[in-house]
Amino acid sequence: MSPLNNSSPLTTHVLNTGDGLPAVRMPISLHRLDPHMTLWNLITVGTTNEDGRCPGLITSDGFTPGTYKMRFETGQYWESLGQGSFYPYVEIVFTITDAEQKLHLPLLLSRYSYNTYRGS
């Protein structure tokens, strides 16, 4: 098992549950909601590694209370495998109230379903 990236307070792990493998080379973007303008501001983009993880999404300094969105480009991932899927992307919106806590946000994925939960 690979260790989580300790430098980022927010981590993710994408698993292709249909094939029982990590979802490799999936583009991910992280956004923060501007509460005054009700607009999503892009914080960073990344791609999952060979273990299905995307380390270094945000620094501790940038991880402040607020509403965030992580967008997973699932359609692009399935296309890279030569397969179709029902969901072109998955967006998970979540609220951070305590920026001192570490948050792990896994995505369990198949071509026609997905599941997520709050980890630590």
UniProtKB/TrEMBL annotation:
Residues 5-119 form the Transthyretin/hydroxyisourate hydrolase domain. InterPro entries: Hydroxyisourate_hydrolase (IPR014306), Thyroxine_BS (IPR023418), Transthyretin/HIU_hydrolase (IPR000895), Transthyretin/HIU_hydrolase_d (IPR023416), Transthyretin/HIU_hydrolase_sf (IPR036817). Its EC number is 3.5.2.17. It is found in: Peroxisome. Keywords: Hydrolase, Peroxisome, Purine metabolism. Pfam families: Transthyretin. Pathway: Purine metabolism; urate degradation; (S)-allantoin from urate: step 2/3. The keyword Hydrolase applies. GO terms for cellular component: peroxisome. The keyword Nuclease does not apply. SMART domains: TR_THY. SUPFAM superfamilies: Transthyretin (synonym: prealbumin). GO terms for biological process: purine nucleobase metabolic process. GO terms for molecular function: hydroxyisourate hydrolase activity. It catalyses: 5-hydroxyisourate + H2O = 5-hydroxy-2-oxo-4-ureido-2,5-dihydro-1H-imidazole-5-carboxylate + H(+). Substrate binds at H13, R53, Y117. Catalyzes the hydrolysis of 5-hydroxyisourate (HIU) to 2-oxo-4-hydroxy-4-carboxy-5-ureidoimidazoline (OHCU). Belongs to the transthyretin family. 5-hydroxyisourate hydrolase subfamily. Homotetramer. This is 5-hydroxyisourate hydrolase.
